[in-house]
Write a structure and sequence with these properties.
Oligomer: single chain
Radius of gyration: 24 Å
Order of helices and strands: EEEHEEHEHEEHHEHHHHH
Strand content: 5-15%
Length: about 300
């Protein structure tokens, strides 16, 4: 077990860096481009990048490719040298004392999980905090580490073996003081086509599909905006009921356009939606008033 910093030193700088390992051979997928496999319309790599979007620096260790947001790129030498060599290459481009290390095949990873890893590390005396999967196995590529502790561990392994190429991750993690957090959902990774099919089926479940769709649309359009979807759904309902069914999508589009002209942001969306809902309700009241004389005459 290596020495480690006392609790509380991680977090003195709230910024953190992220290293995403995306250069594996994906042998169990027949050599397919795993980071580019789409789950819910989004590449696996982009889904992981969204979960660590607030990182000060994000380093992806792989050959360069288009991504949904800007990142730095690194590559182990030689390429395909294994996870420890890739981790070493990524860490060399980081500076923050806290580093989140992720694989590129985590379809259900969310920003809240990344925050929890960082907060748990901040309040512990551990060298790292990692998730465990449904079977209780460590997932060292869904973790937050103290950068200096990992650098020391990698340096010691390099001295011992002469190289990091081909060494398994457990050679590093066995020497670190780690805290474990069970999370069978966020730790789910896609190693096989069956795993990918499972992930695609899960996001289409009723409780997930709307959030997944909104996230996919935001990524596709290149926007980063959190809005109250309930407000927009209520608006669509009121427009459809008080005016006409086709008014629902047209009204929500116009609300978005108006919010954009007002500078964007959740407050602008909420204000535009409020005005549109009030208008739809006025239409509904007028229709009811017009219908009442006809009913009385009958």
């Amino acid at each position: 077990m290596t020495s480690y910093e006392p609790a509380g030193t991680f977090g003195s700088d709230p910024a953190y860096d992220a290293v995403v390992l995306a250069g594996g051979a994906a042998r169990r997928l027949g050599g397919a481009d795993k980071p580019g496999v789409r789950i819910g319309g989004r590449a696996l790599l982009d889904r992981v990048l969204a979960a660590c979007a607030d990182a000060r620096t994000t380093v992806v260790v792989a050959d360069e490719r288009p991504t949904a947001r800007a990142v730095l790129w690194a590559r182990e030498d030689p390429p395909g040298g294994g996870p420890l060599a890739a981790l070493d290459a990524g860490l060399r481009r980081t500076e923050a004392e806290g580093v989140v290390v992720l694989s590129a095949d985590l379809p259900f990873l969310e920003a809240a999980t990344v925050r929890n890893l960082r907060e748990t590390l901040r309040t512990s005396g551990a060298d790292g905090v990692l998730l465990t999967d449904a079977d209780g196995r460590d997932q060292p590529l869904v973790a937050a580490y103290r950068r200096d502790a990992v650098r020391r561990g990698l340096a010691a392994l390099t001295v011992e073996h002469g190289t990091l190429t081909g060494l398994p991750l457990r050679r590093l993690t066995a020497a670190l003081h780690l805290t474990r957090v069970p999370d069978p959902v966020a730790s789910f990774d896609c190693d096989t086509w069956d795993d990918i099919a499972t992930a695609r089926a899960r996001i289409r479940e009723h409780g997930h599909v709307l959030d997944e769709w909104i996230s996919a649309v935001k990524d596709e359009l290149g926007i980063d905006l959190d809005v109250d979807t309930g407000v927009l759904l209520d608006l669509a309902r009121d427009a459809a009921h008080g005016v006409a069914r086709p008014a629902a999508p047209l009204t929500t589009f116009l609300v978005g356009y108006a919010a954009g002209r007002a500078g964007g942001g959740p407050e602008a969306v909420a204000e535009a939606a409020r005005k549109a809902v009030a208008l739809a309700l006025r239409w509904e009241r007028e229709n009811a008033e017009e219908a009442k004389p006809d009913a009385d005459a009958g």
